[in-house]
Amino acid sequence: MTPPLSTERLLIRDWSLDDTEAAYAIYGSPEVAHWLSTGAVDDVSAMRSVLEAWVEAQPNLVPPAGRWAVVRREDGEVIGGLSLRLLPPFEEDFELNWQLRPDTWGSGYATEASQALIRWAFSQGLEELFAVARPDNERAIATARRIGMEWVGETDKYYGRRLQVFRCRPSDL
Ligand SMILES: CC(C)(COP(=O)(O)OP(=O)(O)OC[C@H]1O[C@@H](n2cnc3c(N)ncnc32)[C@H](O)[C@@H]1OP(=O)(O)O)[C@@H](O)C(=O)NCCC(=O)NCCS
């Protein structure tokens, strides 16, 4: 099965170009962009170009790789994004990445969405999944631990910067 996935409060589904404004409220916000290696998306037009690339790439990605929007079921708002991809530069380890619109932080949405996506990824035969975070990204680190990921160390082998590494295996769920 491929997402959409449904949880108690959320829906995880493919991105659509109709999500441009909502995505910009996430990826254009300084609070989120501060933690992204790509920096902030400059404006709505740039966000649309990014989404076009994501939408075009999605059908060609080999599961469990992908990028998805996180929708709050209560009001239908797109409040975040999740992605699963091979970590550069070696492309051996799968990374879970998550971003939420800042006004929705503190509600457990990243934890809830990630747990559903991880279960799905393991159902695709994945044997382990990683998350990486800068040492001062306290919220991301807390979310990784809340999900049940185990801290495995610090490395600079990904993205050329020092990062904390967390790992999850099916037996951790
Ligand atoms: C990382 C990020 C997604 C975490 O968001 P978050 O809302 O803190 O994450 P969680 O879903 O784990 O929510 C946990 C918080 O919700 C609270 N919460 C409320 N209801 C909850 C529930 N049902 N389940 C779990 N937590 C719940 C927790 O107590 C916790 O509150 P606290 O932060 O005040 O201690 C968000 O900060 C973000 O988008 N950051 C920028 C991008 C980024 O850094 N991404 C990660 C790169 S590795």
Regarding quaternary structure, what we see is single chain
Largest sheet: 5 strands, antiparallel
DSSP helix fraction: 25-40%
Portion in beta strands: 25-35%
CATH architecture: 3-Layer(aba) Sandwich
Name the shape in a single word: globular
**N→C terminal distance:** 19 Å
Strand order of the largest sheet: 1-2-3-4-5
Strand segment tally: 8
Radius of gyration: 15 Å
- The total number of structural domains is 1
Which structural class do the helices and strands define? alpha+beta
User: H/E element string?
Assistant: EEHHHEEEHEHEE
Ligands in the model, by name, code or SMILES, are: coenzyme A
Q: What is the name of the CATH topology? A: Aminopeptidase
